[in-house]
Design a protein that fits this description.
mainly alpha; 720 residues; 33 helices; two-stranded antiparallel ribbon; Leucine-rich Repeat Variant; 64% helix
Length: 720
């Protein structure tokens, strides 16, 4: 036993095992090792550039056993922190990694505070060690995530965010870039998804002089998430592998190994399918949390004009500025003349520039500001000197801009663009018709009469809004449909007569539309009869009094009376219709106030609203909802004839048959003109002619042979 104890100072793993089992018995041994560590650390501080393996082992040994003797190791974490602070860049990489791992181990055992350690680790991001920086990034994210898993420590988070605010301004590009990456990762993991994190990235990261920090911050607001793309790609690969694996399992030999592989692939495909069914993440929700979007847009635009960055970085600036303008309805009038400089068909990434112009358009921008963009697109793209693809892209971009700002289009320009509906190229024709369909819904008065089409009920009800006008609904649109289903509604105090007779009671309005129409027609007929009787009486009185007037005056008076009667009849019809519409709206509003609508009610309302947008000529409604983000496919999507359609394929097939031997089965004859055998001729004969021979080849059973023989013998016997 004595010999075993003498070996312990030189066998640290064994001593560590014994200490964890019985700390009190080996306390003196640990104190001896700790004093040895302090002496070795003082010697190492004289020359920190060299590696010391014995010190490395001692550091990890004390970090493992520190939890057993916390009173002895009180100063141990501070010694390592001071060593890293004083000699962070000059330390040997192996020793520096050893000290960092020991501190992480102490942090996992709650022997050091999180704020002190994380502030040190953020400073260590300046070290020229890529492996160390990635390790520190992983630990920082994991540690902050663990601290906020059960409950959020707002004070600690606020202090760390303030410290990272200073780190983003660091002159070291690697440290600043790593700090931005950490903040973005914490935001995506829903740990620091508050407005403070977003505004730190917006105010510091987007205006950094370091290009990498600037690009990373702009990508954060653009919503470029590489992990989501990779997961989508892997999901699609799993789906393809599933199909091929099922086919291989059908064809190949059935083995246990292949069966297990198929089951694994099926599980992966199910997981990928579940991921696809999940609600899509809102990619650029961070842009909604910016406190001063107008100031940020102006600052980015000023930085774009003054800077000399690459064209890709300029496109990122334009993208973020256009999203800020479109989402927050900002006013930045100098942005539109700037972006028109890039609207040329030969410009690189011109479709994205058109996308930015559409994103920066909204209803609060005056039409005079966006109209020059439409004219520039029309002059540079929608001309017959360009190809059909360029013209179609220009028309698509015009449609996307006008979808967000309909008042920007002038009547003359719209009618000129509408004339491309009969263009020879189908891509241009379809793009022009989509623009016409848009203005049929928005502002049909700007179109020529022949292009307006048949009005739907929804178009008749919709009124064109002026600049800055907001459509306010007093009730739920389309709730009039529920009046037919509901038998009674509470009309309240609308009519004094009703309140006198039915005070606080339900009024029956379950009358059908046909009955209402019949009643109104009967009322109109009675009114007309009364008017005709009155007019006849007047005419007879006039005839008795003025019997000396001429016949011409009589006919004129009768014509005038007929016209006045007709006008009064039309006016009464219009008044009755208006009263009916007002009564329906009031009843629908009262119904919405006195009743809670169910899902079935909302389905009926949506179906009725959808029915209003459909006519006999148009079988399906337009789906032109304004979204926050303009899809690039909406601009680049053009109809294009396939290069390898049926006609071109037939031409290639016929060209391939030239100078080629006849396809088919070849017989063994050397001379093609010589006769064939009966067996070869039999293949070309009709089946009816050869049916008896096919029957003879069928093998008979023993029972059939027995019956045939008996039949033959009976026939032979009869013949005798």
């Amino acid at each position: 036993m004595v010999r075993h104890n003498n070996q312990l100072p030189h066998n640290l793993p064994q001593l560590q095992n014994l200490i964890k089992r019985d700390p009190e018995s080996y306390k003196s041994d640990f104190q001896q090792q700790y004093r040895h560590f302090e002496a070795s650390l003082e010697v190492f501080a004289l020359n920190p550039c060299e590696e010391d393996k014995s010190l490395d082992e001692l550091v990890m040994f004390i970090a493992q056993c520190a939890k057993c003797y916390p009173e002895i190791c009180l100063k141990y974490p501070q010694l390592l922190v001071d060593m890293l602070k004083n000699h962070a860049t000059t330390l040997d990489p192996t020793m520096r990694n050893c000290f960092v791992k020991a501190l992480v181990l102490m942090r996992n055992k709650n022997l050091i505070s999180a704020l002190d350690l994380l502030s040190l680790f953020f400073q260590l991001l300046r070290c020229p060690d890529k492996h160390l920086r990635s390790y520190l990034q992983t630990h920082i994210i994991t540690d902050i995530k663990n601290m906020n898993s059960k409950h959020r420590d707002m004070k600690l988070n606020s202090n760390l965010q303030n410290f990272m605010y200073t780190m983003l301004k660091d002159t070291n590009p690697k440290a600043a870039k790593m700090s931005v990456n950490i903040m973005i990762d914490l935001y995506k993991k829903n740990i620091w998804n508050d407005a403070k994190t977003v505004n730190v990235i917006a105010t510091v990261g987007c205006f950094s002089k370091i290009t990498k920090v600037l690009v990373t911050s702009l990508k954060f607001f653009l919503g470029h998430d590489d992990d989501d793309k990779n997961s989508d790609e892997s999901g699609s690969d799993n789906e393809i592998d599933l199909k091929t694996a099922i086919m291989q399992n059908r064809v190949n030999k059935k083995t246990k190994k292949r069966q297990k592989q198929l089951e694994v692939i099926k599980k992966q495909a199910i997981k990928a399918q579940k991921k696809k069914k999940n609600a899509p993440a809102f990619n650029f929700s961070g842009i909604h949390l910016i406190h001063n979007p107008q100031g940020m847009a102006e600052g980015l635009f000023k930085q774009l004009q003054a800077g000399n960055e690459r064209f890709e970085v300029k496109l990122m600036h334009l993208d973020v500025i256009s999203r800020l303008i479109g989402i927050h309805n900002l006013f930045l009038f100098s942005f539109y003349p700037y972006i028109t400089r890039f609207m040329q068909p030969h410009q690189r990434q011109v479709t994205r520039v058109l996308q930015f112009a559409a994103q920066a358009s909204h209803e609060l921008v005056p039409g005079d500001i966006i109209e020059p963009i439409l004219k520039t697109i029309a002059n540079n793209f929608i001309t017959e000197r360009n190809s059909s693809d360029v013209m179609a892209i220009g028309l698509n971009a015009t449609r996307e801009i006008c979808l967000r700002c309909p008042l920007a289009m002038g009547e003359d320009l719209l009618r000129d663009l509408a004339m491309y509906k009969t263009y020879k190229e189908k891509s241009v024709m379809m793009a022009a018709r989509s623009l016409i369909m848009l203005y049929r819904e928005q502002l049909p008065a700007l179109l020529h009469k022949r292009d307006r089409g048949r009005l739907t009920e929804a178009q008749a009800e919709r009124k064109p809004r002026a600049y800055g006008e907001i459509e306010v609904h007093e009730s739920i649109p389309g709730a009039e449909v529920l009046l037919k289903a509901s038998k009674v509604i509470d009309m309240g105090d609308d009519n004094d007569s009703d309140t006198d007779s039915n005070d606080g009671q339900w009024v029956d309005v379950s009358q059908s539309e046909d009955e209402g129409v019949q009643d109104s027609e009967q009322d109109e007929e009675t009114d007309d009869d009364q008017e005709e009787e009155d007019s006849d009486n007047d005419v007879s009185d006039n005839d008795e009094d003025d019997s000396d007037e001429e016949d011409v005056n009589k006919t004129d008076n009768s014509l005038n009376l007929k016209t006045t009667i007709k006008q009064e009849k039309d006016e009464s019809n219009e008044i009755s219709e208006n009263i009916k519409i007002l009564n329906e709206k009031e009843a629908a509003q009262e119904l919405a106030l006195t009743r809670i609508f169910t899902d079935e009610d909302f389905k009926k309302i949506n179906a009725a609203n959808l029915k209003k947008t459909v006519t006999n000529a148009r079988k399906r409604p337009l789906e032109k909802d304004r979204s926050e983000f303009v899809k690039l496919d909406n601009i680049e999507m053009i109809y294009k004839k396939r290069k390898h359609d049926k006609e071109s394929r037939l031409e290639t097939v016929k060209a391939g048959r030239e100078d080629r031997e006849k396809f088919g089965w070849k017989d063994g004859r050397k001379n093609e003109n010589c006769s064939k055998t009966n067996r070869e001729k039999r293949k070309n004969k009709n089946f009816v002619m050869m049916r008896h021979k096919a029957r003879s080849k069928v093998k008979k059973s023993f029972r059939d042979k027995q019956q045939a023989l008996r039949k033959h013998l009976l026939q032979q016997k009869k013949m005798k």
